[in-house]
Amino acid sequence: MKEMKLWMLAAILTCGLALTSCTNNDNPIAPPVDEVEAQLQKMTLREKVGQLFYIRLESLDPSIEWTTYDDLASIKVLEVTENMKHVNENYPVGGIILYAWNIEDEAQLARIIPQVRALNGHPLLCIDEEGGRVSRIANNPNFNVKKYESMAAIGATGDPQNAYECGNTIGTYLKHYGFDIDFAPVADVNTNPENVVIGPRAFSDDPAVAAPMVVNYLQGLKDAGITGCIKHFPGHGDTKADTHYGYASTQKTWEEMLDCEMVTFKAGIKWGCQLIMTAHIGAPKVTGSDVPSTMSPIILQDKLRGELGYQNIIITDAMEMGAITQQYTSAEAAVGSLKAGVDIVLGPRYFTEAFDAVMAAVNNGTLTEERINQSVRRILKLKKERAVR
């Protein structure tokens, strides 16, 4: 009987302690907060739509008229003007890309970057600095940075460490100047000797050579604190025409692409690349039509996201290029590319027109707000990662 009483006393004390601990816990531990989701929930639709656009500075000033890239070079916008700030008040942007004509020297670059960062939308700062022919800073004589002959020359060495050194060197000076994203490296496989737009920008005409170069270049950028972007999906290396000026296409089947172009893109995806840039090329033997890949849900959703399993940001090539503007208005191109599966619309010819069209598309049900949210989540995630670097 004595043992029974002791057992009951112990049980009562245990229950009492348990009850006491429960009643004293007035502030139970809250589940962890998803910062991206919390930020998304606070945003207006207009703020969300702004995140989908990465634009050139000139696009914030509708009074600037231009027809060719030579016009932009002669206009030479070197600062964020009051007119741009005024437009930006109602048209937030997720990113700004600087071109060669926006960069004069180190002193001017140091002035303009804080101006860009102060814009509505907290834009990331982007540039095309591949090394070789496409290098906005290295090809400017006012900058003392290392220059590279071409990616083809690096590929020809057969040593991926040279691609790492290139990416890391470029990334180091881009980080120093204040950039976030480099639209590089080119992941195309240059298989067509008549190609006029890719050529030596690609590492090789052999995917087995190009793939390790691409991932090592990406790693070099990352180690320097810069986010890279592989381009131009599904591969611009087997084309003849230049999408800057008009329609271009590849006649390869998907099976042929899997043996060539997709080798480099799959390597980049496996490595963990944060951005993939689309090509404006048609791929009729894949899609069954001449629609540019930028506007094709078959290319972007079925192949890139579905078959290849890519989960990060899809960004268009510049939407002001002839392959797009000769077929679509800025409004049609922006809405159509988002419907096809892109997350970021880069460089629309007429930014405010494109922005207004996306707003209208959500309001009339052509695009759902949840579809917009899918892209904004990816963009906010990248911005959060950039903020801690």
Description:
By secondary structure, the protein is an alpha/beta fold. Helices cover 48% and strands 9% of the residues. The protein has 17 helices and eleven strands. It has helices at residues 2-24, 35-42, 45-51, 69-75, 82-90, 106-117, 151-157, 160-177, 207-224, 254-259, 261-271, 284-287, 297-307, 322-325, 330-340, 351-363, 369-387; strands at 53-56, 95-98, 124-127, 129-131, 134-135, 181-182, 227-228, 230-233, 275-278, 313-315, 345-346. The strands form three sheets. A six-stranded parallel sheet has the order 7-6-3-2-1-11. Strands 8-9-10 form a three-stranded parallel sheet. Strand 6, helix 9 (207-224) and strand 7 form a beta-alpha-beta unit. The longest helix has 23 residues, at 2-24. It starts with a helix and ends with a helix. The model is unreliable at 1-25 (pLDDT under 50).
Helix content: 40-55%
**β-strand amount:** 5-15%
Structural class: alpha/beta
The major β-sheet equals:
6 strands, parallel
Cα gyration radius (Å): 25 Å
Cross-sheet strand order for the largest sheet: 7-6-3-2-1-11
- The end-to-end distance, rounded to whole angstroms, is 69 Å
Low-confidence parts? 1-25
Query: Treating each run of at least 4 consecutive H or I residues as one helix, how many helices?
Result: 17
Principal-axes shape call: globular
What oligomeric state do these chains adopt?
Answer: single chain
The H/E string reads HHHEHHEHEEEHHEHEEHHEHHEHHEHH
Short descriptors:
17 helices; alpha/beta; 48% helix; globular; 389 residues; three-stranded parallel β-sheet; six-stranded parallel β-sheet
